[in-house]
Design a protein that fits this description.
59% helix; mainly alpha; disordered C terminus
């Protein structure tokens, strides 16, 4: 493939990811919004993510979960409830949030916040420094 095509795709993905990051707190953020903002089709956005071995929905979910995890670990956010933090990160369904958080990190959000440990002495949460898309979670 022509190097120019790779450069254009890379620039497009950089712009898409920047837009997603800017709108990550919007629970209504969807593939169609991203495509419209970029002036391309939804299927092309999907194709761009697929070329990186990722899915749009997984990428957004991972960013949101990482943002929540950082906020829960931040001592300055202790006064904010978990549901308020989840909503601020784009989750509008607390049951869904709790389910995907537990699946992703292996513990509850409150378990991460308090740093509780299991009886076997292991950490209450698994350490996931890389998301399912293979990208670092540090934003």
């Amino acid at each position: 493939m022509d190097m120019e095509v790779f450069t254009v795709r890379g620039a497009r993905m950089t712009a898409i990811k920047a837009y997603i990051l800017a709108k990550i707190d919007d629970p209504a953020l969807c593939l169609a919004d991203i495509a419209a903002h970029q002036g391309i089709s939804s299927s092309y956005v999907r194709k761009l993510f697929a070329s990186e071995g990722a899915k749009f929905s997984t990428y957004v979910l991972d960013l949101r979960l990482a943002q929540v995890a950082r906020m829960l670990a931040d001592p300055e956010a202790k006064g904010r409830s978990i549901s308020v933090i989840a909503a601020a990160c784009g989750f509008n369904d607390i049951s869904y949030f709790n389910r995907v958080f537990r699946k992703r990190y292996g513990c509850t959000p409150s378990g991460l916040r308090t740093g509780r440990h299991r009886p076997d002495g292991a950490s209450a949460c698994e350490d996931h420094s890389v998301n399912d898309c293979g990208s670092p979670l540090d934003l």
